[in-house]
Amino acid sequence: MKRLSFYIFILLPCIAIISALISTDLSDAFYKNHTNAEQPAAIQKPDSSNASSEHHPPTLGQLRKKYSHYFLTNGPRVNKVALTFDDVPDPRFTPQILDILKSHGVTATFFVNGHRIAKYPDIFRRIHEEGHAIGNHSYSHPNFNRLTVPEFVNEIQRTEQAAYPIIEYYPKMIRPPYGEITEEQLKWAVDHSYRIVNWNVDSLDWKGLGKNEVIQNIMSDIRPGAIVLQHGGGGVGSDLSGTIQALPEVITRLQALGYELVTVPELLGISLEK
Length: 274
Ligand SMILES: [Zn+2]
Prior knowledge:
Layout: H1 2-55, H2 60-66, E1 71-72, E2 80-88, H3 94-103, E3 109-112, H4 114-119, H5 121-129, E4 133-136, H6 149-167, E5 173-174, H7 183-191, E6 195-197, E7 201-202, H8 211-219, E8 227-231, H9 241-256, E9 260-262, H10 264-268
Parallel strand pairs: 1-6, 2-3, 2-8, 2-9, 3-4, 5-6, 7-8
């Protein structure tokens, strides 16, 4: 009887306590192992999705779809075409382009760099006075993909400050250098009632192409509502003589096809100013 009560009152509780401790350890160990096994996966998942969104931001095509009202490469399919000239004003090329446009009675759109306005205000004034539309092409021509939003805003606003004393308006159109813009910058532009205007016909004239190649690049791709990219200025050593020599023929051939040459705001039905 003594032995039985020893088992019941002393040994069994001890066994119960020991087994409870063991099972706690085991479950703890299981929990740790389990979470250790899961943790890398749990951490990896958000990390890898963050990494992919960092490394794969929306493409320009995706941004154009998402912000189709604000980010444009062409107008409606009407018999109108807009010629555009970037990187102006430049005393080597811009006055010759203006002469040709004037002699054909055609207006175009010029995307200006603020630092060039500061250098050549008289050419900039001439662009405006001869009835051409003005768009903002940044102050110093950086790739916007490498800029923060405040740096991007600074590029836009410095150009506006350079342009305003001469044209007395803030241009509604922004053409990003190289056509590149981030979604955050685009959102800022949308919130501040700008339009981002790229192109859908590229002359590739910045490569220093000859007259015939420039004509060929434009005419082979032209379509109703097209926005044509050309340059009216460039860096040291750039040669836009092909653009200048091609321009009279480009104008007459487009007109012969029935296209009316208009400014981008006319093509898009938007105002010049913001
Ligand atoms: Zn440019």
